[in-house]
Design brief:
By secondary structure, the chain is mostly helical. The protein has seven helices and no strands.
């Protein structure tokens, strides 16, 4: 072969080697990106699922009937007196007190909502709205009961009062609609998060990560 052909062939092989190296680099970069996105999605899924479990437990506790024994027998609100009327008002307001103490949990959960939507879509994030709705309904119902305390309800007012009392956990028992709504919200978020979490743990057990 002439020197020109040898030089051309060498240049061709060098170019092919550069192309192959570039292709391998792009594939490696894409694989790394895919791995990082998958890891972030799984970490977010774990964080959100844990947040939903905490929110469910807090809302369940907040709606548990209050009493002196359960709450330590103390009421720090100004003007609290031992009379029956004041005790009943304290029981009505107990869910608000309890949710206020745990407000950071709900703030952090809602703060992760938009990241969750970015990874999993708006439809998958609907349980966030349900948790927020239940939280608001409990607080609003307690305020409404305090506001109308002592008034004698009639007609539709009686129905509204029953709804408010149900929201704060009074007299629901086995037919607790709010508890069912909480459970359904958690199950819905589990359907999105748990497969990712289980797959990640399976991969770790197999030593691939």
């Amino acid at each position: 072969m002439s020197p020109e052909w040898i030089s051309a062939l060498a240049n061709l092989m060098t170019g092919l080697a550069a192309v192959v190296a570039g292709w391998a680099g792009v594939r490696g970069l894409n694989a790394w990106r895919t791995e990082m996105v998958g890891r972030r999605k799984t970490e977010l899924a774990e964080e959100v699922l844990a947040g939903f479990y905490r929110a469910r437990d807090i809302l369940t506790w907040a709606r548990f009937p209050a009493s002196d024994d359960n709450d330590g027998g103390e009421d720090d609100r100004p003007g609290a007196r031992p009379e029956d009327e004041e005790l009943e008002r304290g029981e009505i307001f107990a869910p608000v007190d309890r949710l206020t103490k745990e407000s950071q949990v709900f703030s952090e959960l809602q703060a992760s909502r938009y990241r969750f939507m970015a990874y999993f879509g708006e439809e998958a994030a609907r349980p966030f709205e349900e948790i927020r709705a239940i939280h608001s309904e409990v607080i609003d119902s307690a305020h409404n009961l305090i506001r109308t305390y002592g008034q004698e309800p009639t007609g539709s007012e009686e129905a509204r009062r029953n709804q408010w009392e149900a929201a704060i956990g009074w007299g629901e028992g086995n037919g607790d609609v709010f508890r069912r709504r909480l459970d359904l919200a958690v199950k819905a978020i589990e359907q999105t998060c748990r497969p990712l979490i289980e797959e990640r743990h399976k991969t770790r057990r197999n030593g691939l990560v």
